[in-house]
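Summarise this fold before class:
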Amino acid sequence: MLEDFLVCGEPCGVQLCPFCASDERQAQVVDLILQRPLSDIDPDMETLDELLITIPSCGHAFTVETLDGLCGMTEFYTQNSEGRWIGLGVPIGFRRPPTCPTCRSVVRTPRYGRVYKRADLDILERNVAAHMSRRLRDTQNSIEAFTLADKKNALVRDAAAISLSFKEKSLSKKQIDAQKRSKEAVLNVSKQVPVPLNAIRPWMKRLHTIDQSVLDIWNKAMKELLNAYKQAVEIAETRSAHADAWEAALSLLHECEMESMKKNPRTIARDPQVNAMRVAKMKIGQPRPLADRRFLVEAFWLTLHIRLALVDLIRTWLEEIAKRDSNTKKFQPKSWATYAKFLFDTCDRDVELALKVANDSEARRQITKTILYKMRVELEEFRFDFFMFKSAGLLRDQNHRNELLTRARQCHEKSAQCMRETLRKHSQKKSGSEEANWLEVNFSSIAQDIVDEWGKIEASIRLDTFYEPLSLQERMEIVKAFDYGEVFIPFDDADSWENSCRRSFLQLP
């Protein structure tokens, strides 16, 4: 008779029979809501508070109503007014595996498959997040150990001592076009990660024209920064178990919807691809996991910080090279300015990607701080152009001066407007004294420095006075990664557990 009393889908061989149980088992409480023992259960009523499920891992039995409450089923599924399950719910926040109230053994039964699989994925994601957090912190430490002033001093010494015997080189139109296509290919990659390390190395001949005679010096000067850049890109490419499982599930559901439309042509919507994706997202039952996106944005910040430091070194190098012979002054600025322009192009591309990721994640603080990086990139790019104009003597020409002044004035207004708009939007989304303090430290004060710097540049161009750039490298602190969680999975078990979770992600109770 046991089969008559089982909840469909539960393995019959492990279930406790309420009629055959010993006197000791009959006295055990199985209904934690009303504190009823097994002897009071009447399976013939076939209601959730009378039907039993035995936990396979420990053998303890409880009513379905008890375990449903323990596992938070109402967070995973929606009910109608009659109490029947009618759809998927979206649980919020970190989920721990449900455990037996008697012995704390993990509840793994078919009815609660979606519950414990979500918990498994949450633990995996927390493990990956903790790993990414540690790597971010290590990368930040390596950048902070890098003293930019020392590297500048080394470049000054090398620039004074190195023998620069090269001659000006002219690239053919074919070579120029090939370089242009290579750069466009780097900038147009749709993958949401920073540009690869090889693209920003000055010795990449398909992208840059830096003379071979100075590359040894620059390899030494850039070594620590480029190593840190490589680590940041690897962090950005790390994916969480949740994200992989979610995308695999979404892809499978999308394919199933498309196949269903093919079998029933009359049901095909006007835009079948979009409609199939919409239905797939509804069926998957939860939004895309966002934790790994936070680390992706922070990795973008680190790479932007590194590239702007490289531009700072380039400026120091050019200032010293300008003291050499005329041939050196003629060719060196051109090749390095082209390289710096490409670095800024990659920064423009990556700051927009970081902003998109932060917006998609609705992470208000990350959006605000990414906008600050965007403001800084725009300022640093103009300051480098201003430096090159002055070095080439172009500011003596009134037309060039007016052109640069107009551009500075427009950028000044744009920067001030951006600051005001960002403060307004942030305050609309988040408020309170704690948030105001965060905003002041992480955005307002530095953004105001950037706006003021535009005013200084504008005045310097208009009045032809000396301009001393404010160092924003120290003002803009690198974001501090913090441990995302304390739950870890043994390394040897991680792969098998992740694969198991991914395979069963779509299974419903």
Remarks:
- Residues 2-114 form one domain.
- Confidence is low (pLDDT under 50) at residues 1-6, 482-509.
